[in-house]
Amino acid sequence: MSLGSVVLLAFIFAMATAAAGPPSVGQAAPDFTLKDQNGRDVRLSDFRGKKTVVLAFYIRAFTPG
After folding, report:
1. By residue range, what is the domain housing residue 10?
2. Domain count, the chain
3. 59 — phi, psi (to 5°)?
4. If you placed Cys at 55, which of 10, 19, 42, 60 could pair as Cys (CB 3.0 to 4.6 Å)?
5. pTM of the predicted protein model
6. Phi, psi at residue 33, to the nearest 5°?
7. What CA–CA distance (Å, rounded) separates 4 from 49?
8. Measured distance CA(51)–CA(7) in Å, rounded
9. pLDDT tens digits, one per residue of 1-31
């Protein structure tokens, strides 16, 4: 999975969970499934315990100004 895909996954995750409120420090992210650039399902749980996953949020990304 490319870095761009991971960033896109993080952005979509942020949008999907925005109404749930901010997470607590140290709280595990809930599992979610999204499509990668090739249309295959990718789950956060696929990486749990195997790789470090960083969710990055760019507040003003894709907005004018």
Report:
1. 1-65
2. 1
3. -55, -45
4. 10
5. 0.46
6. -125, 130
7. 22
8. 15
9. 566 666 776 777 666 665 566 778 888 878 8
